[in-house]
Specification:
Length: about 230
């Protein structure tokens, strides 16, 4: 869960988010190295007298032509690897369908015969003590931890976006189209997200709450809800 003074990402709760944070740190180090080098060269040129060596230097031109290409390769290769990992969906243990409405979510557990519910934001007056305002819902998603989960996302009216930052998941919900994503939660906990696509007047009031629990807890919850 993010806080007001937080500058970085939320704690990663899935392998994909761990890779995204690592790539973010890698890209920042590359950018810091480039900025330091450019600042050093600018300072050097301002402090020292110009000479003919800085006007005509084929070796330097060769270096600053090849070096950016190497830097781009260093950024492109891990980026492409993560993109392919995010698109990979390999034999999920559970499939969840998320349908965006103005302004709530509907969830269907397609592996069960009759397990679906609507998820609305809890009004502030009904909020239990200790829960987060504008982020808590009346019905949470519950999934088994350490299991591959596939999420099929669509919308009933306008564009929405199903997003949980700590899991590294952000998928657009488009009317008439099915998008899919996948994730694995590495630890038990409650993870919060929101609709990340401007979808109307109450766009700010479409929270997403996902609870990752051990398999036995999930089985008890699903049997209780479907009965």
């Amino acid at each position: 869960m993010a806080n007001h003074s937080q500058f970085g990402f939320q704690d990663a709760s899935s392998p994909i988010m761990e890779e995204l944070i690592e790539f973010h740190d890698h890209a920042l180090m590359v950018a810091l190295t480039i900025c330091t080098l450019v600042l050093y060269l600018l300072t050097l040129m301002l402090m020292e007298k110009l000479s003919s060596n800085t006007v005509d230097a084929q070796e330097v031109e060769l270096v600053w032509t090849i070096l950016p290409a190497i830097v781009l390769i260093m950024l492109a290769l891990p980026s492409l690897q993560i993109l392919y990992m995010m698109d990979e969906i390999d034999e999920p243990d559970l499939t969840l369908k998320a349908i965006g409405h103005q302004w709530y979510w509907t969830y269907e557990y397609t592996d069960f015969k009759d397990l679906s519910f609507d998820s609305y934001m809890l009004p502030t007056v009904d909020l239990p003590l200790g829960h987060f305002r504008l982020l808590e819902v009346d019905h949470r998603i519950v999934i088994p931890m350490e299991s591959p989960i596939r999420v099929i996302v669509t919308a009933d009216d306008v564009l929405h976006s199903w997003t949980i930052p700590s899991l590294g998941v952000k998928t657009d919900a488009i009317p008439g189209r099915l998008n899919q994503t996948s994730f694995i939660t590495t630890r038990p906990g409650i993870f919060y997200g929101q609709c990340s696509e401007i979808c109307g007047a109450n766009h700010s009031f479409m929270p997403i709450v996902l609870e990752s629990a051990p398999l036995t807890h999930f089985e008890s919850w699903s049997s209780l809800l479907s009965s």
